[in-house]
Structure formats: structure tokens, C-alpha cells
Amino acid sequence: MKRYFFRRLLQIIPVVFGITALVFFIMRLIPGDPAQVLLGTDATPEDLARMREALGLNGSVWSQFLSYMRGALTLDFGESIFQKDAVLDILMRSFPATLELSVCAILISVLIAAPLGVAAALKRNTWIDYAGMAFAQLGASMPVFWIGVLLIMYFSVHLGWLPSFGRGDPLWQGFWLLVTTGSPQTLLTSLRHIAMPAFSLGVMGAALISRMIRSSMLEVLDSDYIRTARAKGTPESIVVMKHAFRNALLPVVTTVGLQFGALLGNAIVTETVFAWPGIGRVIVTAISQRDFPLVQGGVILIALAFALINMAVDMLYAVINPKIRV
Amino acid sequence: MTAGFWKKLLRNKSALIGGFLIAIVVLTAVFAPLLAPCDPYEMHMDDRFAAPSAAHPMGTDQYGRDLFSRVIYGAVISLQVGIIAVGVSMALGVFLGLISGYFGGWLDRAVMILVDIFLSFPIILLAIAFVAVLGPSPKNVMLALGMIYWTNYARTVRAGVLAAKEEEYVLAARTTGAGDFRVIFLYILPNVMAPVIVMATLGLGTAIISESTLSFLGLGIQPPAASWGSTLAVGLDHLHSAPHISIFPGCCIMLTVLGFNLLGNGIRDVADPKLSRRL
Predict the structure, then answer these.
(1) Three-class SS of residue B218?
(2) Record: contact A22-B250, CB cut-off 8 A
(3) B247-271 pLDDT per residue, tens
């Protein structure tokens, strides 16, 4: 097991190298001189030289690449052009909000998908199955931002129950205050803020995961050991929960992990809809200001998080599935 | 595609519903100039934010433009972007998959490393990065989407080629003196296309969602063009007074994507019953 983990850990090195290299080359696709693009046509040669220096555009492409990779190794992504602050600091300030949103979203995905998938498999070819799978089809066809817009329309505009934008205090702070002072107010405010963004982000995942759970459950329910368990007279609830569901979860772990990664990408969109102060909003704002160092750092950071999650999922899969450890 | 395939496809409920939805969207796009009651760009400032009525079945937007006409023209944009983006990614992916699977060696390794790198990004993030750099325009959106979705085609085709190249018909073609490219394109390609067609159909839905997402973020099709995504984004600022601006384009995106998903699933079920039993 240790050897497998070590090997998987080593595999992340070329991936990280590839991610940073690809982002470098994408950023070099900017048509014309990026310094000129940023400063406009009436910029002085001195200003242009300073901007090129700030963007790391001096010297040959090869030397640019080397100094860029050196910076990336030490997590030094330079300074934001507009915020005059280190890119890493800006990103680190907004990352917790994105992480909190993504974790809540994946929890919602699983909470919706698990009962839906199991029920659809148990009641195969009944209206429950059809309704569940219709939800899954619709959920996978709706753009994340539109779900957000519909939620705002109903719960904020029509009912006035939930705030349509912004974030309360961090959730952990709410929990902390609830435990230490017994006051639920902060936690409730935070929950009210995160409910709609997390739900809209989680629906697509719920759709895909519920389909996966359904097919995985169907396969397991059809296996010999389930027939044996039933033949022994084991109560149906134990057959379903202990024998079938636990085994059906194996392939689902990978899907959940991949969905968690995809959520990080979609979070950019959700954060824009709900003005959620996370890394996605930082990137979108930076794009509109053509703040290339910040865009570059943000893209690398999310891709890194995505790669780390994929690695963690592989490791988790190895822990629960002994067959993989060869 | 044999006659049996089409017969089975017509009996597949998922494919039938999907095909019906897509047919509506395609016909709407083709006959947009005939179907649209108004010019989608014509402004009527005294008729702004009008609710749906007989004169404007979907209401009007912030410039008093007829939303129904804009939504009809939006179908043209969505289909255009979807088809070209899928065409670019399919051509790129199939070509790279064919040569990497057939020739193997360093070429294969290089292509697969590239696939791995592309797959280490959340898809939409990569699209955003490309468009952020290239600048927002329909051409760049198609190019960006084409550049990111090729990986799945490459992987699938490569796997197909690896299996096909050991088949007797390929060996026979080679013995008759057929050159590498003749073998690849004339003999192997037709035999690895079935999963590609399924992926392309599902890919059209994904490309349309991605285009509308980019346009929603202001990075895709720019106003005054009547893209569903950018129209929906405008509606976000007027949810209190004119929710219809966001509701209708969103419904169109959902139904179109649903159509492609259902059709794709249907084709998969018919073309590869083994796979559909597993899923």
C-alpha cells in the first residue's frame, strides 16, 4: 500500500509540470504584445519596458519559460497588475471560499444522488425509476448558471427567503461560535448564504452520480452473493444496505472524486452568479481587467487542486478496493 | 450504418425524443428569418421589459427587442458554435488518435502525455483560459472549445486502432501493398467511428453548454449578437422586473442539450448494446 501511494505521489510531478507548461504556452497566445495591449497605444517605451518586466516577457521564450518555471516551483506567480499585491496572496485569500462552496456542493450532490440512485435501482422500471432518471437527464442538461438564476428567482425574488448574493462568515466560524457560545445566528446566516450556490453547483454532480449509483446497484443486486444472502433469509434492508450498497459504492467513489474536480471549474460560474467571493470571481474579474499574472496564477492553482483531488481519489480507491494494490 | 441500425434507432424512445427536440432546433435555425416575427436587433425603447404578450410571445428585453426573435436567432449561433467546435475537436482527436495508435512509439507517448495534461484541467477552466487570452469572439470560442474537447476522441480512437491493427483485414490490406495512410484512413478509420459518432452527439450538447457558459461570463459571443448565454446574463440584472429575459433562453439551452444527450444515449444503446447494459 505504501509503495502504491508513493508511486501515485510521484506521478503527480509530470502532471504539475505539464499543467504549468501548458498555462505558460496558452498565455503566450495573446495576440500582439501583451504589454502594449494592457497599456494602450500611447504608452511610453519606459512604461512598456516596465510592464514587460512585470509580465516576465524579457529575453527569449526559453529563458522566459525557465524563469517562469522557477517562479512556479516556489509558488511565486508574480504580482497582480491591478491589485499591486502578490498573486499567491490574493488567491490564498479567496481560496477558502471556493473550497467551502465546493465541499458543500459535493455533499449536496451525494445526499441527493445516493437515495435517488438506490431507489431507482430497487424499483427498476417503475415510476420512481423513471422520475429519478428523468431528474438525472434534466440535471445533466441544465447549465449551472441557469439553475442559479432559477433559484434566485424563486427563493430570493419571489419568496424573499434567501440572500441572492455574497457570503456570510466562514461556515467553520459559525460552527465554532455555536459550540463555544451556543449562538446559532452566525451559522444560520452562513448557511442561508451558501444554500443556493452550493445547491446549484451540486445538481449536475447529483445527476451524474445518481446514474452511476443506479447502474452500479443494478449490477450488484444481480450478483450471486446477493442471491445467497436473500436465500439465507437475510432481511431485505440488510441485503440492500450492508451487502449491496457498500459494494456498489466502489465505482461510485471515482465518479464522486471526478465530480468534485469538475465542481472546481464550475465554481467559477456559480461564484459569478451569486457574487461569491472565491477564486472564480477573482479569475473572471482579472480576465476583464486583462490582469494576466493573476489569471495565470488562478488557473494553475485550480488545476493543481484538481490534480491533487484526482490523486486523493485514486488513493482512497486503493484503500477501499484491495484489488487495485498490485 | 445499416438499415437495421436505423430501424432500431427509430424504435429507441430516447433517440426518438432526442431526435425530435434536435429536429425542432435545427428547423428553427434553418428557417430563422422566416420564423422570427421581428428583427432581433431592432430596438423599441418605449417597449422595454414588456412581459410576454400576443405581440411579443416571450416579451422584450432591456432595449425593447423582441425576445422570441432573439431566441430563434440564438439557435443559429448555438448550433453553429456547437457543430464547428465538435468538428474541430473531432478532426483533431481522431487524427491524433489514429496516428498515435497506428505508429506507436514516441509519437504515441507524446500524444498521450498531451492528453494527460489536457485532462488535468477542469474543462471549463481551460476554455476560459483560452478565450481570456485569445479575446472574446465567435471564432475564438469555437477554436477554444475545439482545442479542449479533442482528448476523448483521441483516446477512444487510439484504443480502437490498437485493437483493429491486429485484425486480419488490416493485415490483408497491408499484404496487398497498401501504404500506411491508405490502411489508416480507408480500412481502420471506418471501423473505429461508431463510438466517435456517439461522443460527437453527446459532445454537441456539452459544447452548447460551454458556449453559453462563456457567453454568460462575458467571454463568448458578444452583444448585440443574440446568443442564449449572453441574453441570459443580461436577464440576471433584471430578475425582479423582467424574469422572462432569463427564463426563455435557459429553457432553450436545456431542451437543446437534453435533445443531444438523449439522442447520443439512444445511438449508443443501438450501436453498442454491450456498453449500454453496463451503463
Answers:
(1) coil
(2) no
(3) 899 999 999 999 999 999 888 888 7
A18 assigned to some structural domain? no
Residue B278: pLDDT band by 50, 70, 90 thresholds? very low
In chain A, residues with a C-beta closer than 8 Å to the C-beta of B116 are: 14-15, 18
CB B152 within 8 A of CB B159: no
Q: pLDDT tens across B73-110, in order?
A: 999 999 999 999 999 999 999 999 999 999 988 999 89
Q: Which pTM value belongs to this model?
A: 0.86
Task: Tell me the domain boundaries of chain B.
Answer: 3-278
Q: Which residues contact B55 (CB under 8 A, 6 or more apart)?
A: none
**Closest residue in B to A165 (Cα–Cα):** B236
DSSP string, A167-181: --S-HHHHHHHHHHH
Set of chain B residues whose Cβ sits within 8 Å of the Cβ of A287: 128, 132, 219
Are the C-beta atoms of residues B205 and B260 closer than 8 Å to each other? Answer: yes
The one-letter amino acid code at B122 reads P
pLDDT digits (tens, 9 = 90+) for B193-252: 888 988 999 899 999 999 989 988 888 888 788 888 888 888 888 878 888 888 899 999
Q: Is B110 on the interface with A (CB under 8 A)?
A: no
Q: H or E stretch including A245? A: none
Q: Indicate if the pLDDT at residue A85 is higher than 50.
A: yes
Q: Please enumerate in sequence order all residues whose Cβ is within 8 A of that of B116, keeping only pairs 6 or more positions apart, or say none.
A: A14, A15, A18
Distance, CA of B155 to CA of B136 (rounded, Å)? 29
A40 part of a folded domain: no
CA atoms of A206 and A127, how far apart (whole Å): 19
B50 in Cβ contact with B59 (< 8 Å):
yes
Mean pLDDT of A72-100: 87
CA nearest neighbour of A113 among A211, A196, A197, A200: A211
Answer yes or no: are the C-beta atoms of B94 and B196 closer than 8 Å.
Answer: yes
Residue A177 included in any domain: yes
CATH code of residue A312: 1.10.3720.10
H/E segment holding residue B142: helix B138-148
Confidence grade of residue B1 (pLDDT, cut at 50, 70, 90): low
For residues A37-54, average pLDDT? 79
Q: Tell me the chain B residues in contact with residue A139 when contact means C-beta distances shorter than 8 Å.
A: none
Q: Domain limits at A236?
A: 87-325
Report helix, strand or coil for A79.
strand
Query: Which position has the grid cell 448574493?
Result: A165
CB B131 within 8 A of CB B211: no
Q: What is the pLDDT of residues A228-275, one digit of tens each?
A: 888 888 888 888 888 888 888 877 888 888 888 788 888 889 998 899
Question: What's the confidence (pLDDT) of residue A157?
Answer: 87
- The answer regarding whether domain B3-278 maps to CATH 3.40.50.410 reads no
Widest CA span in chain B: 76
CB-CB contact of B160 with B191 (8 Å):
yes
**Residue B258 in contact with residue B69, Cβ under 8 Å?**
no
The stretch A76-85 carries a mean pLDDT of: 83
pLDDT of A322 reads: 65
Optimal mutation site among A146, A279, A284, A296, interface B, most CBs of chain B within 10 A: A146
> How many domains does chain A divide into?
1
Chain A CB contacts of B132 under 8 Å are 287, 295
